[in-house]
Specification:
The structure is a single chain. It is built from 3 helices and 6 strands. It is of the alpha+beta class and 138 residues long. It has a single domain, classed as Ribosomal protein S10 (Alpha-Beta Plaits, 2-Layer Sandwich). β2 and β3 form a beta hairpin. α1 packs across α2. The radius of gyration is 15 Å and the shape is elongated.
């Protein structure tokens, strides 16, 4: 493991469902982002996942936590979101040895894009210059 650097990465996300079944749609999207990120990190050369986690809280006060330490096992999920939610705020943290924070950010943005395609939810990030979210492209 000599030579593997660790550059922790964090990003705030805002999710808004675009269809009915708001809680399950948002829960699936948060889980999808973490799972996709774990898969992408595991495919990178010389990368070791330390910990990937997301904590999400909806406008009703309900919360969920998703945690992954490798791509071979499904992420663990605790809690759940309220069915009548309007939106969700989440924080994603990624500790991946061997990848720069810029590379992790790129993989996160790819995972967000995939989650938006698979679920009926709009996901916006905290707004970095490299953000690929639709509201930062206009």
């Amino acid at each position: 493991m000599e030579g593997l650097n660790l550059e922790p990465f964090a990003m705030k996300l805002h999710l808004r469902p675009t269809s009915s079944g708001a809680a399950s749609v948002c829960e699936a999207a948060v889980l999808s982002v973490v799972k996709s990120l774990a898969d992408k990190c595991s495919k990178e050369n010389r990368a070791v996942i330390g910990h990937l986690k997301a904590f999400a809280q909806d406008d009703q006060g309900a919360w969920m936590r998703v945690s992954a330490v490798d791509a071979k096992h499904a992420p663990s999920v605790e809690g759940g979101l309220a069915e009548a939610l309007d939106h969700v705020h989440a924080t994603l943290n990624a500790h991946v040895l061997g990848l720069s924070s810029e590379k992790v950010e790129k993989l996160v943005m790819e995972s967000i894009e995939e989650a938006q395609k698979d679920a009926c939810v709009e996901i916006n990030c905290g707004g970095t210059e490299k953000c690929l979210c639709a509201h930062h492209q206009s």
